[in-house]
Amino acid sequence: MQYLTVTIPEKAVTVGSRIGLADTWLTRLFGLLGKSSLDDGAGLLIRPSSGVHTMWMRFAIDVIALDKNLRVLNTWQRLRPWRLTPVSFKTHSVLELAPGQISQLNIEPGDQLVLSN
Questions:
Q1: How is residue 10 annotated by DSSP?
Q2: If you average pLDDT over every residue of the chain, what do you get?
Q3: Are strands 42-46 and 13-22 parallel, antiparallel or unpaired?
């Protein structure tokens, strides 16, 4: 799997340096299933995606909905297993992070994310 670094330059924040990219049918299907946790700095960028679920997961995650320009549209903190985010046609991709990362990094709607290898 390809790993990316995700930053918010305007806030001088590194969201994660071990962000996996799920951009195929198979990688989007399995996502984080099978994992027992996520470390700080790790996560999964799912694209395209207009929403996610946490069915069959074993831990809570923070979820960030992004538009086509990687601007934060919405956030869900500590989304527990067996939950769904709303589906939105404005959402182009979704970033899944370890629980608590949205609050710790002060990620808010309107923030502009940047990807790098």
A1: G
A2: 94
A3: parallel
